[in-house]
Design goal:
Elements: E1 2-6, H1 10-21, E2 25-31, H2 45-50, E3 55-57, H3 64-72, E4 77-80, H4 89-92, E5 99-103, E6 111-112, H5 115-121, E7 126-133, E8 143-150, H6 157-181, E9 196-197, H7 213-223, E10 230-234, E11 237-247, E12 259-263, E13 266-270, E14 275-281
Parallel strand pairs: 1-2, 1-4, 2-3, 4-5, 6-9
Antiparallel strand pairs: 5-7, 7-8, 10-11, 11-14, 12-13, 13-14
Helix pairs in contact: 1-6, 5-7
């Protein structure tokens, strides 16, 4: 079975390594030289060069030269794991078995952008690792493999990312032989259950201390590394916050955004209901008690 692999992020790299460990016949890799969009961008070309796999850098996956390059390699199936562009019908139709995509959410729910970030920011308690046969619509198409993933209160973007990829690697090991011998099953998605998450914008990462402590905690853990980080505004500058903790306080007469304690480099700030402790951050100079953060 001849496989073309498309991807350009950390999860792509780990899945490509898994496929090669399983001796999948990767005949070509389509990737990107850099990405202004993906905070978890990963270069795949050292793997390709080490295994003598042809690769092609692209800016737009649907460009004519890329389509022709893929066609010349005669793939039986295309794996598109971790790539932030929609494939057109021409690309989707190249391989006889189609294109298998990956989405870290419980399809048909939670299609669209930033599924790990939104799951944490919204305080969900469960997500999933899903492989599916791609169609012209985003995250639509029959499901090949899906495994539920629990989200704990302690999880953040890094730990949930790793949980999902660990599950995905096991799924690949399970479904790859079924693709070889055509014993895989396709499960159609119930489109009536589908919703779409939108593209995150910069404002979504700003901590507003009018929020409750749980909402702020969820925002910080959703955007921590490998992503861009949540931020507060202090003296007109954005300050990244990478780790925070909810703190119960009985200060109903204190305004939101007021710094109520600073100790050992950590900043305790009043929010709508309780307080939030900013543990790991990028303040160049710590605020002082009594100051306000926006």
């Amino acid at each position: 079975m001849r496989v073309i692999f498309i991807g350009s992020v950390e999860s792509s790299r780990r899945m490509l390594e898994k496929l090669l460990h399983l001796r999948a016949n990767i005949v070509g890799v389509v990737t990107q030289k850099s990405s202004a969009f993906n905070a978890d961008f990963a270069d795949l070309t050292d793997i390709c060069e080490g295994c003598s796999i042809p690769y092609r850098y692209v800016e737009k996956i649907n460009e004519r030269e890329t389509i022709q390059w893929i066609e010349r390699l005669l793939p039986d199936v295309i794996f598109c794991f971790g790539f932030s562009q929609l494939l057109n019908n021409e690309v989707l139709g190249i391989a006889p078995m189609g294109v298998i995509g990956f989405h870290p959410a419980k399809l048909p729910q939670n299609r669209g952008r930033h599924p790990i970030i939104w799951a944490l920011a919204l305080g969900l308690e469960k997500t999933a690792s899903t492989f599916f046969f791609m169609s012209k619509d985003a995250d639509d198409g029959d499901i090949l493999s899906q495994v539920d993933i629990e989200i704990t209160y302690e999880d953040n973007a890094r730990t949930l990312y790793d949980k999902i990829i660990s599950a995905a690697l096991i799924q690949i090991e399970t479904f790859l032989p079924k693709l070889y011998d055509k014993t895989f099953r396709r499960t159609s998605q119930d489109r009536a259950q589908a919703n779409y998450w939108r593209k995150r914008i910069k404002k979504d990462g700003e901590i507003d201390f009018r929020m409750c402590s749980r909402t702020i905690y969820n925002l910080v853990r959703a955007l921590t590394k490998p992503y861009v980080g949540a931020h507060v505004v202090y003296k007109g500058h954005e300050v990244r916050v990478w780790d925070a903790r909810e703190v119960q306080v009985n200060l109903s007469n204190i305004e939101h955004g007021k710094v109520i304690n600073v100790a050992q480099g950590q900043v305790l700030v009043k929010c709508a209901d309780n307080a939030i402790l900013l543990i790991t951050h990028e303040f160049e100079g710590l605020p002082i008690v009594g100051e306000y953060l926006q």
